[in-house]
Structure formats: C-alpha cells, structure tokens
Backbone:
C-alpha cells in the first residue's frame, strides 16, 4: 500500500532478508502466510466467502440475476466483478480514494475470467439466445495487510464454489417472451463448475529474487510487481474421480510499479507464478471440499467476524 | 522450490485464550450500566445517566476505593511524562519534526530537543534548521522520551540522551499499548544478542545489538556522506545483519505475535520465556501457525505461573 512510510535502514533490512531467502517473519521467498477461510457467511447471497490472510481481510458475495445474452454470444451467460474498498481498511480509501485500486483489481479479474478455459460461461445459459444467468461478484475489502490480489482471487473462487443457482421448474412461452418459474427450495439448485477458475499470484521482484505474498512493509520496497492469473485444476475441486485434470494455464499478466523487467526474467516469473498458483489451488480445493463434506453432514455453524 | 500454503477453516479457528485457571474478568460494553451512582464516583471511561454509572468504552472495570474506572482493551496511546516511545517521523517542519506515536494526535520533536552531531552544547543556528533532514527524514524510526504534554494532549518528545535517537536496521512491530507492562527500563539486550525497545506506545523495536554500536560511531560519517547526495552508498556502508541475528529477530517477532494473540502482557521476562519456549519449533516460520502460537503462549504462561508460585 502506498502511504506507508519506511526508513531506508528498514528497507535495507528487508532487501537483505530477501537476498538471504529469510524474510522478517522467517518465511522463505516462496511461502504464504497462513490463511483462514469461511464460505456461506452472507445468507442473503447466492454464494459468499470470507478470506483472511494475516491482516488482509476480504469478503466476497455472489448474486445472480436473469439477463438476456448478448446477440453475438447467444449461448453464454456473463460474470461481472465489482470491488469496493472500505474506508475501514485505510483512511486513504475514504470517498473516491480507493477507486483506482478497485478498478485495477476488478479489471484484472475480468480479464482473468475472460477465457472459456478459465471459466465456462456456457453453464450459465438457460435458453440459448433468450435468457441466461448473470453473476454479480461483489468484493469488499475490509483490511489491507499486503497481497490483496491473491487474497481477492482466492476468496472469489471460494465464493463461486459456494454459489447455488436455482433450477428452472417451468417455462411459459408467451409469444417471444419467456416466463420462467424458479424453484423455491434453496436446495433444489445446482452448483457451478469452478474448478478451472483462475487464481491471481502477485510476484514481487527484488533484485534477482521473486517473492510471493508480500507484507505491507515489503510492498513499499518493491520497484515492480507482476500479477499472473493462472487457471485452476478441476480435479482438485470434486471428490469424484471422473473429472479430467487439466494443466495450469496462464490467463492474464499485469505489471505495476515504476520498475522494469527483462524478457528472460519474465519467463521465470511466469513459471514461478504457475508453481505458486498450483500450491494455492491445491490448498484451496482441499479446504473447500473439507468444508463441503462437513456441511453435508450437519448444519454449519457460522463464525463470521465476531468470535 | 515450491512454497508452503496453508488455508484453515474458520470452524477450526484456534481459541487463543490462555487464562484457563484464572477467571476471565467481567467485560463491559459502551452504554452498559456499571453500578449505581450513590456509592461510587465516576472515573475515566464512564459517564452518568439516570443516576447510574455507565461505561463509555469497551473494556474492564477497575475500582480504587470509591472510584470506578473502565479501562478500554484497545485504545490509542495516552502518553505520560517520562515514557519511552518508539515513533516514526512523518514530516519535517519548521524547527520541529512531526512524529507518529500511535496517540490520538501526532507528537512533536523540537529541534531544540535533540542532540546535534558534533557538539552537545552549542547554539542552534539557521544552518541546523536547514539541515534538519540530515538528522532525521521522513520515514525514519526513532526512540524518544516524553518530555511534556501539550494542553491538547499531544506529546512533546526529546532525544537528549545517548540511548535515544535514530534506529537503524531491524524490525518494528505494533501491538496494543495496553499490553506493554510499565517497567523501570524499556531498553533491553536479550541473551540472544538482540536489543529490544518496548515502547510504552505499543511500538516494539528489535535490532541487532552490535549494529547499533557500529551505526552510532558511524553517525557523523553518515551525515557528512549524505551531503554528497549519495544516500544509497552511505547506507550501503552499514554492514548487513548476520543470519543468526536475523533468525533471532524473526523468532522474537513471531513470539511477540503469539503473546499478543493471547493478550499477554509484554515485558522482558515474558519475551525471554517465549523466546526460549519457541525453540520447541525448529523453523521460525512454523511459529506463524496459529496452533504453534497458542502453544508458545501457553508454555510461557505456565512458566510465569510457576515463578509466581515460588
């Protein structure tokens, strides 16, 4: 985060630590801080998740709406991202202060989810050319403790995993219009296939090293950071065996900061991003399946923010 | 090459409380009735409504004879004269620096309240005013003492002693000011060779001990070197922190995080105990795990209890 002051001596301490592969809290350059995840926190939404990564706190809600598909893509639904930076996070976000950051993150997600190999929009289709589902993904940033992009993308994937879309019970054709009747039972619904949904990995370049999961202090010492969007492996997100595993593919790349990077180094960065995304994907899939298995057995206790 | 990722569920959240045997104190929320007005006097953190004393903050009640106070659990730092604080320079102003010390208002460090390089007792000239950034610039960390408190509650600091002044390489962690135990001495050099400053304002500084000595001697050279506007090289002159020191600092940092998560008071004894107990975990990064944090805090509390019993 900008606006955080650090003295030159502290910067040197951080730089030397990265060079030694031993950061100020003992992590190596490729370690993430422990995270905490809870899905289904907002009862009024179709799907929701809250992720806490050290001091970074993100709440994601998915809402569904019926929409008419675009004429050039009659068989596809749509997904939209909206990021809101709460002024609780830092006073800088007050008013329109967080808008730039919010736009950056929502554009990043939009681009990462754009490819059909990353997120299959066909599953949102109801009647080809007539009606489809539109997903509104609302992201609320409650606290910033560094590494926002990664946390947001993990929470978005968890919220989509948690999303239920009601089945269509009956449809009445009335001339050109279609009148849909949706099932009222919340359990009479289908889950989305989100196994391939991309995760964002931020890699910060310091000298010759790339680090993942920077803290807020480390973020102030970086000249250039690269965000790599990597699609997920659907086999990690189902308990059944018949899903075909797919490779992790890079869906988007974005760069920020004043510094530059050599083309050769860029290749290494992308490769490291894919490796990191693989680890994240495995951990996320394991946790989500664990929570789903548990909630199938008994009603879930909500933890939320208090407690 | 691959990194370590751990995602836990909220339902498996670790309860950090270590107060198993000693009961948890009664907790008041703002607006809650503490007691009747008739027998008691109202103190800090309370107000009177309908002949009842009510809490105005979220915290625990303390009674001294007939005086009722409610101490907030989380609050900004309320300074007292003589406190040792760690602060960060926010702005260089006319004849003074504005320092962030976690209080409600920013603190002030006057140019007349610092030891200037070169001589202790000399007049502060206009040149000194021009060269304030060479002494302290934006972002620098300092340790200082509260000299006086202005009428609006902001603090005036001073660094007129060799033990105060600019802090060099190391790490600062922020904790709640209420968790710092008030002691005679807040400067410590731990057996592991790390110097620790437990600021009363909740900022804790950790740095290698030898480094501080080296940098202090170099102080004058640094100021003269920075006149060449070659800041980078002048800081490069600082030797890098050794791996063993770095590991000790990281371990201490994680220990402090563990103690804070369990809301334990911090002083040099608890720090040393926690540091020693943490060696149960070989790698420093294992201490980031919530269960390991609870374990360290629990072992520390246990050791404190046994000392109290003796």
Residues:
């Amino acid at each position: 985060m900008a606006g955080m002051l650090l003295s030159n001596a502290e910067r040197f301490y951080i730089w030397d630590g990265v060079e030694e592969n031993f950061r100020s809290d003992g992590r190596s350059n490729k370690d993430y801080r422990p995270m905490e995840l809870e899905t289904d926190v907002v009862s009024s939404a179709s799907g929701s998740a809250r992720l806490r990564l050290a001091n970074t706190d993100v709440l994601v809600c998915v809402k569904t709406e019926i929409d008419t598909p675009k004429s050039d893509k009659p068989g596809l639904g749509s997904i939209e991202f909206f990021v809101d930076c709460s002024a609780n996070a830092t006073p800088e976000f007050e008013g329109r202060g967080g808008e730039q950051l919010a736009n950056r993150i929502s554009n990043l997600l939009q681009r990462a989810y754009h490819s059909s190999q990353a997120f299959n929009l066909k599953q949102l289709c109801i009647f080809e050319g007539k009606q489809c589902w539109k997903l509104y993904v609302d992201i609320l940033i409650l606290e910033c403790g560094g590494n926002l992009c990664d946390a947001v993308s993990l929470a978005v994937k968890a919220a989509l995993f948690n999303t239920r879309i009601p089945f269509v019970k009956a449809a009445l054709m009335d001339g050109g219009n279609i009148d849909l009747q949706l099932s009222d039972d919340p359990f009479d619904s289908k889950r989305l296939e989100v196994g391939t949904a991309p995760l964002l990995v931020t890699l910060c370049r310091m000298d010759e090293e790339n680090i993942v999961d920077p803290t807020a202090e480390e973020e102030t010492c970086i000249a250039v950071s690269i965000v790599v969007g990597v699609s997920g492996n659907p086999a990690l997100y189902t308990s059944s065996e018949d899903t075909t595993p797919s490779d992790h593919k890079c869906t988007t790349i974005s760069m920020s900061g004043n510094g530059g990077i050599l083309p050769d180094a860029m290749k290494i960065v992308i490769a490291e991003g894919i490796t990191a995304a693989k680890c994240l994907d495995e951990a996320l899939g394991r946790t989500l399946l664990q929570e789903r298995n548990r909630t199938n057995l008994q009603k879930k206790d909500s933890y939320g923010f208090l407690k | 090459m691959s990194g370590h990722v751990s995602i836990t569920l909220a339902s498996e959240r670790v309860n950090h409380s270590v107060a198993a045997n000693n009961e948890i104190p009664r907790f008041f929320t703002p607006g809650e009735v503490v007691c009747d007005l008739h027998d008691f006097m109202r103190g800090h953190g309370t107000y009177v409504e309908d002949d009842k004393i009510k809490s105005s903050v979220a915290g625990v009640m303390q009674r001294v004879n007939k005086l009722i106070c409610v101490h907030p659990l989380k609050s900004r730092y309320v300074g007292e004269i003589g406190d040792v604080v760690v602060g960060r320079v926010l702005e260089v102003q006319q004849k003074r620096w504005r320092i962030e010390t976690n209080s409600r208002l920013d603190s002030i460090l006057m140019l007349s309240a610092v030891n200037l390089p070169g001589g202790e007792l000399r007049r502060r000239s206009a040149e000194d005013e021009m060269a304030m950034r060479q002494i302290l610039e934006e972002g620098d960390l300092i340790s200082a003492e509260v000299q006086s408190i202005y009428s609006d509650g902001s603090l005036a600091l001073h660094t007129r002693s060799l033990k105060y002044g600019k802090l060099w390489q190391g790490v600062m962690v922020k904790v709640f000011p209420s968790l710092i135990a008030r002691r005679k001495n807040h400067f410590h050099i731990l057996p592991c060779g790390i110097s620790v400053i437990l600021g009363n304002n909740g900022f804790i500084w950790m740095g290698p001990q030898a480094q501080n000595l080296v940098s202090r001697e170099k102080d004058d050279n640094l100021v003269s070197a920075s006149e060449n506007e070659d800041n980078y090289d002048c800081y490069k002159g600082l030797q890098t922190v050794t791996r063993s020191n770095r590991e000790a600092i990281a371990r201490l940092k994680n220990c402090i995080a563990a103690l804070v998560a369990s809301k334990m008071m911090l002083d040099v004894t608890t720090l040393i105990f926690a540091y020693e107990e943490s060696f149960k975990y070989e790698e420093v990064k294992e201490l980031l795990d919530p269960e390991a944090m609870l374990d360290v805090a629990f072992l520390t509390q246990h050791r404190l209890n046994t000392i109290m019993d003796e």
The CA atoms of residues 18 and 298 of chain B lie 6 Å apart. Confidence is low (pLDDT under 50) at residues 211-237 of chain B. DSSP finds seven helices and 18 strands in chain B.
